[in-house]
Design a protein that fits this description.
Shape: globular
Number of helices: 3
Number of strands: 15
Number of domains: 1
Structural class: alpha/beta
Oligomer: single chain
Helix content: 10-25%
């Protein structure tokens, strides 16, 4: 019995010593590296880029045109300016569209006037029609009445004459003391007579034409490039009651 107890004691002591001597190294169990699971792929809706709404075409407004369906607009930056622009418009189905221009236009050497006087070097501001076309060259195909200018043709600018502001044939024989010679191949190769002072009020101005530009101010007319003028003469149609609207921009816009 004593031997049994000693043997048990030895076994226990050995167990206790072995536990103390042996270091148990426990390696941490590596965590499973989990790959994130992507959510089921749903196709993205195609998103159109945001675009600013396209501006609607602005309706063209032609001041002073009234019931006319053909209008020529001549503008300058001020009353005393001698160079401006000319644009031609036509109205179809109630809407205006541009026919020609803008192109350079020359006016009187003293600019525009609301109250024009003979010899003041100003172009009359306002809205006027056309009475006829003329030129030293043959009719280019205008719908207006056309007269071929010859060496004896003049436009009377004598306020004291009973023939003031009319086309006449020389010699004057005392009927006038001054007149504009119409046989001028430069400015009057082609021209249109602006219906200004049709009442022929003495001294209110005469011989106001739309004619070929010489690259400088006029005595009171409006002048533009000759090739464009021919196109405009072919385009003007009395049935459409064409008008010419003239003056500084601020004045024209107020009509």
């Amino acid at each position: 019995m004593k031997r049994i107890l000693i043997a048990l004691l030895l076994v226990c002591t050995a167990c206790s010593h072995g536990t103390a001597e042996v270091a148990t190294t426990t390696s941490p169990t590596p965590r499973a590296t989990s790959t994130p699971t992507a959510p089921p792929s749903t196709p993205r809706a195609q998103i159109e880029p945001t675009r600013a709404p396209r501006p609607s075409a602005r309706a063209i407004v032609v001041p002073g045109a009234g019931s006319s369906t053909q209008a020529i607009v001549v503008r300058t930056p001020s009353w005393n300016a001698t160079v401006g622009t000319l644009e031609a418009y036509e109205r179809d189905d109630g809407a205006w569209k541009i026919f020609a221009g803008p192109i350079t236009a020359h006016v009187g050497y003293n600019g525009f006037a609301q109250n024009k006087h003979e010899g003041d070097g100003r172009t009359p501001a306002g809205v006027y029609g056309f009475s006829l076309a003329f030129g030293t060259q043959p009719d280019p195909g205008t719908h207006l009445s056309y007269r071929r200018a010859t060496a004896n043709d003049v436009w009377v600018d004598d306020p004291a004459s009973s023939l003031y502001n009319t086309w006449q044939t020389a010699p004057s024989n005392g009927r006038w003391s001054s007149a504009e010679q119409l046989d001028q191949p430069g400015p009057y190769a082609h021209a249109a007579v602006i219906a200004y002072n049709t009442a022929r009020t003495p001294g209110k101005g005469s011989a106001i034409f739309l004619h070929v530009s010489l690259g400088r101010p006029t005595s009171g007319c409006v002048s533009i490039d000759g090739s464009v003028l021919v196109e405009i003469l072919r385009w003007l149609d009395p049935v459409r009651h064409p008008v010419i609207v003239m003056g500084p921009s601020t004045y024209v816009d107020s009509l």
